[in-house]
Each structure stands twice: as C-alpha cells, then as structure tokens.
Amino acid sequence: MHSWDNSIVNRKSATAEQRNRTYIYLERDAKTDDRNKNYTHPESVETEEGNKTYTLSTSYFNATTSTNKEKDSLKKCPLIPPGLAGKLKVDKTPKTIEAIEKKYEMLKDGKFKPKNCTARQKVAILIPFRDRESHLGIFLNHMHAFLMKQQLEYGIYVVEQTKGLEFNRGFLFNVGYKEALKDSDYDCFVLHDVDLLPENDHNIYTCPVDQPKHLAIASEKWQYKLPYTSYFGGVSALTREQYEAINGFSNEFFGWGGEDDDFYNRVAWAKMSVYRLISDVGRYSALEHKPGAANPKRNDIISKGKERMWKDGLNSLKYEIIQKTYKKLYIHIIVKIV
Ligand code: BGN
C-alpha cells in the first residue's frame, strides 16, 4: 500500500476531514517533486501542524472544458441520456463477429455518433488485446448497445500485441491513445479490459474534466468489492489533458501486474485525485480466463516510478504498426514493440 492511499476519495461520500487529508498527502508529495518546487496552491491554507490544506475546486486542475468541436447544427445531446435502464442483463454467451455485425448495421469503421444530437464528448475506448477472441465478441455485443444508449460519439480501438514479448497492457494503452488521436480529436479515453462488462447503464462513459475517473470499482472478479484502496485497474477514464499530464502509462511493465498501480501513482504525483462511481453503478460482470504470468520485476519498477515518470511513457513510446484495420465493429491495431 502506498502512503498516499487516502488520496482516492469517493467525493460523494467523503467527509470534509477526509478531503482535507487527501490534499495534505498530495501537497506533501508535491514538495519532493521537482516539477512542483515552487508550487503553491492558490487556495492553500496553513494548518496548525504547518501542513497546507485546501478544498477541491475545478479551477485547480486548470482543465479545459471538453466540448465536441464539430461545427454541427444539431443540438447537444441531453446531459442525462433519455431511456437509460439502470441495471442491465449481461449476455455472456459467445457470439460470432458476423452475428454482431448484422445486429449493428448502423456502425461504420468501428465508430458511432448519435443521429439526432451532437454528443457531449468524443470517446475512444481503448482495449489492450491478445488471444481473447471469444471475449472480444461478447464484449462488442454488449458494449455497442450500452454506448449507443448513452448517446456518445465513440470509437472502439482493439490494440493487439504481436507474439513474442510478454503482454504489456500499459504500452498498448499508450499506442491506442496515439493512434486514436490520429483518427479524431477525442476528448476522453476509456481504458478498458476486454473481460469486463458494465452491469448498469447509469455508468456513463465520459470523462470528468477535473479529475480521472475509476469505473470498475465493483467487479465480479473481486466479489463486487474494491480489492484495495488505491486500485485503479479494470476500467478507468481520463481526458486527453489528464493522460498527457501524467505522460500516459509506463512502457516497462511486461507480464501481469503493477502497471495500473504505477499509473495510479502518476495521477497522484500530478496532484490529481480519482473520482469514483458509487458501487451499484460501477458494477462489472467478469469473463473467466487463466491468469497471465506475473511480472517478477513489477515491485522494483513501481518503486522507481517517480524518477521514471517523465522519461518513460508517451514521450518515449516506440512502436511499429503491423496493421490498422477499420472494421465495422472496431478498429483493429496490431502493434509490435520496438
Ligand atoms: C495487484 C496488482 C495490480 C492488479 C491487482 C488486481 C501488483 C503490484 C505489486 C504491488 N499489483 O496486486 O496490477 O491489477 O492486484 O489484480 O502486482
């Protein structure tokens, strides 16, 4: 567990005391970070113990308002999409890609936008992938209906790593991020495991502009509980500004484990905290699979995370695209790590 565990606060339920504690942690951490040497939060107040504390305001994060920039005569889609059902049925039976394609005739090139209104955000769903064909069918079948109902403009990017090196989840997210931005000016990136299916459509796949969001907070995999306080894996969402502010993921985690913890640490080091859904909305069904081989170096890499943050990530990413295909249901990227 990390010393800044408390920086994760479910803002809906946090007490004022918890919130203040959060920012004391972040401020303390910021002091040891060179980038923040001369940083003083504009609203900070000295406490009796000499700590600085402050309450959250959106201006603090200096986030730009994300709007769909398209020059469109259509009205913006409503803030709360009409016709959401809340709890959903999750169909885990395998489906062929052909069957799903028939069901979703309105899709083209792995992308969708609502017909009668302009979506509030353009969202890229990024899926790191290898050898999970049956999961992908189940996922796509569930997700397209889910996302369409939320009136989002979105594209689904399945980023597959070539055979050879151990699976590198963080690297594949970075590639997905870069490649999605070559297609469109996405506002929001949802980082999604292929084996998780949202169970409640009030779980809206957009990005709050003031802080990253953790969505998979109650997964069937963990008996619908958060496995530990600083857990940030499964499904999370960041704006472009937030993803850039932390230099994306580390590219160095090969094999299972740790990349999501390191990513969480980056969020804390960039002095952001994480917004969490309430537990009956952030529920996910999980598909079963054999666990991948754990990365024996993960603890070591995490412990050097802070010094690596600005030399290992989006700014050091090197890859070779073997294939980028715009299929009906998704954009399929095959990538080699170089
Ligand atoms: C943690 C893993 C995460 C993983 C969760 C849930 C590590 C780092 C060593 C402290 N972290 O233990 O990557 O998402 O379990 O499976 O292994």
Q: What do these coordinates show?
A:
- The structure is a single chain.
- Strands 3, 4, 5, 6, 8, 10, 11, 13 and 14 form a nine-stranded mixed beta sheet that branches. This protein has a three-stranded mixed beta sheet with strand order 7-12-9. A two-stranded antiparallel sheet has the order 1-2.
- About 25% of the residues lie in helices and about 20% in strands.
- By secondary structure, the protein is α/β, with parallel strands linked by helices.
- Bound molecules: 2-(butanoylamino)-2-deoxy-beta-D-glucopyranose.
- 2-(butanoylamino)-2-deoxy-beta-D-glucopyranose (BGN) binds near residues 257, 258, 260, 261 and 299.
Distance between the first and last residues' Cα:
33 Å
What structural category arises from helix and sheet content?
A: alpha/beta
How many strands, which pairing sense, and closed or not: the largest β-sheet?
9 strands, mixed
Mean pLDDT: 84
N-to-C SSE series?
Answer: HEEHEEHEHEEEEEHHEEHHEE
Helix content: 10-25%
Q: Which descriptor suits the 3D outline?
A: globular
EC number: 2.4.1.-
Domain Galactosyltransferase C-terminal: 213-290
Protein name: Beta-1,4-galactosyltransferase
Pfam families: Glyco_transf_7C, Glyco_transf_7N
